[in-house]
Design goal:
The protein is 52% helix and 7% strand. It is built from 22 helices and 7 strands. α15 packs antiparallel against α16 and α18 packs antiparallel against α19. The protein starts with 17 loop residues before the first helix and ends with a helix.
Length: 454
């Protein structure tokens, strides 16, 4: 009985994960990093010319760091030695360097030492690379998900060029999945029936991580093929002529909501709209429901937090100035702990906003001021408010007559601060809710005094 992917001469593919089995073998098969690999880019041209140098590839999980390093080695005809900073140490590095020296002397072939998760090496371990990188014994390619400025020591960083890899888009991951499906059909000589909406759902669930998307695809295919996936489970059975993945299979793995929520589609906008309007309507129950619904559907939590930041200024404003602080604190907390626990400070912020007193006076004042600027233009600033930084400015009357409020009783003086063309204009009208009630009382007295003074 033959393995599902096995064809003549390819029995060694048995048991190899899809992500490894269909790892890109050339630059054209690497998606999502066009800023580095498009034809005509300096990085691509260096690889094409074989001008390879030590580098750090910095990017999120599943963005193609390991793949890119392997393709670079193949393209530039270097020996490729993968090494994990988690599993190995300085002793193993020395052994690799010794082999690289032998290879260089005997075959004249260079060696690329690829160190995955290089940020896990401490300073002493990182220093072990320095003399060998400087002598050219090895070309070091390090991969990291951490900021190299903080994760790597300065001597090593100064000897390497840093290239940033971007998270893969949904479209990029869809291309990767389709390439793999085509490869499966060619290897197995069987048709794989999987709809566009399923490929799209897998790509969205991958959240920019190609490896995650491929692993999800593999789980679905294994579920669909069952015992026929691996030879050791298919004795006495025939491999089916086609492999079909149904929507039901995807829903079991990813949940039904993956088909209902599209982060760039109508459901995305409907749900965030319902969330904002529920907080504005002071309904904590609806607010927490829509927030959790978005997170469970795969929405970016930082997007939700950004919208809450805007809401705290636009819909709560000075009725409760602490609202902005609460959301900022929730954002910091989330960035430190992530999901799943990070949903709790987010929930605190959403419930705080929903139950806080509401006022839109901040955005109303901002829009009124915008209209005044648009209508009147850059009108002249009163002379007493100008900054007399030179003797000439003082002679011209800059700053003359300005009274410093903190030198006066109550730390306030009756004064007109608006340009003459806008004198008497009122942009900010506080409500009588929350802290704005206090603001309204104090500001009312000030404005009444100014009015009587006129």
């Amino acid at each position: 009985m033959k393995d599902l992917f096995e064809k003549r001469g390819e029995s060694d593919s048995k048991g190899v994960p899809l992500a490894e089995l269909f790892r890109p073998q050339n630059l054209e098969e690497i998606y999502g990093q066009g800023h580095l690999l498009d034809r005509g880019t300096p990085f691509r041209e260096s690889i094409e010319k074989g001008e390879i140098f030590s580098m750090i590839l910095w990017g999120p999980p599943g963005s193609g760091k390991t793949t890119m390093a392997g393709v670079i080695a193949k393209k530039t005809r270097h020996a490729f030695v993968p090494f994990s900073a988690v599993m190995g140490g300085v002793k193993e590095v020395r052994e690799i360097v010794a082999m690289a020296e032998t290879q260089k002397r005997g075959k004249g072939k260079g060696t690329i030492l690829f160190v995955d998760e290089i940020h896990r090496f401490n300073k002493i371990q990182q220093d072990a690379f320095l003399p060998h990188v400087e002598k050219g014994t090895i070309i070091l390619i390090g991969a990291t998900t951490e900021n190299p400025s903080f994760a790597l020591n300065s001597p090593l960083l100064s000897r390497c060029r840093v290239f940033v890899l971007k998270p893969l888009s949904v479209e990029d991951i869809e291309k990767i999945l389709r390439r793999i499906l085509k490869g499966i059909e060619e290897r197995s000589h069987r048709k794989v029936e999987i709809g566009h909406e399923i490929i799209s759902a897998i790509a969205k669930s991958a959240d920019g991580d190609a490896r995650r998307g491929i692993n999800l695809l593999e789980m679905l295919l294994k579920s669909a093929v069952g015992a026929f996936w691996d030879e050791s489970f298919s004795i006495g059975h025939e491999i089916p002529d086609s492999i079909r993945v149904n929507v039901e299979d995807v829903e079991k793995l990813l949940g039904k909501n993956i088909f209902l929520y599209d982060r760039s589609g109508e459901e995305h906008f409907n749900t965030i709209s319902a969330f904002i309007k529920s907080m504005r309507g002071s309904d904590p129950d609806a607010s927490i429901y829509y927030m959790v619904r978005m997170i469970e559907s795969g929405e970016d939590p930082l997007y939700i937090l950004r919208r809450m930041l805007i809401f705290s200024a636009e819909d709560v404003g000075l009725a409760d100035p602490r609202a902005l602080e609460v959301v900022i604190s929730a954002t910091i907390a989330f960035e430190k702990v992530g999901l799943p626990e990070g949903i709790l400070p987010m929930a605190m912020a959403a419930l705080y906003l929903a139950t806080a007193p509401k006022s839109n006076s901040v955005i109303v004042a901002t829009n009124r001021a915008k209209e005044a600027v648009k209508e009147k233009g850059a009108v002249s600033i009163p002379m007493h408010l100008r900054n007399p930084v030179t003797a000439l400015m003082k002679e011209l009357g800059y700053g003359k007559g300005y009274r410093y409020p903190h030198d006066e009783v109550g730390h306030w003086v009756p004064e007109n601060y608006l340009p003459d063309e806008l004198e008497g204009e009122i942009f900010y009208s506080p409500s009588n809710l929350g802290y704005e009630k206090t603001i309204s009382e104090r500001l009312g007295k000030i404005r009444e005094y100014l009015k009587k003074g006129q």
